Amino acid sequence: MLKVENISKSFEGHFANKDISFDISEGKTLGIIGQNGSGKTTIFRIILGFLDQDSGVIKWGKPFDKKIFLVK
């Protein structure tokens, strides 16, 4: 299960995402839709560890360190 709780990210004082929460159970699919510039890609970049969120928690069954995605 992927659980995203109260994720917020802002750039230069403007929120790309504010208090976004959702969960995806094993075997399920979630679609994220919205207008251009609404923060969809920002959410995925945060989940994948390419960006740090300003606040909130991401859990994959349990809390994890996004650094596991980094290549050394």
Automatic annotation (TrEMBL):
It comes from the Bacteria. Residues 18-61 form the ABC transporter domain. The keyword Transport applies. SUPFAM superfamilies: P-loop containing nucleoside triphosphate hydrolases. One of its GO terms (molecular function) is ATP binding. Keywords: ATP-binding, Nucleotide-binding, Transport. Belongs to the ABC transporter superfamily. PANTHER family: ABC TRANSPORTER ATP-BINDING PROTEIN, ABC TRANSPORTER ATP-BINDING PROTEIN NATA. This is ABC transporter.
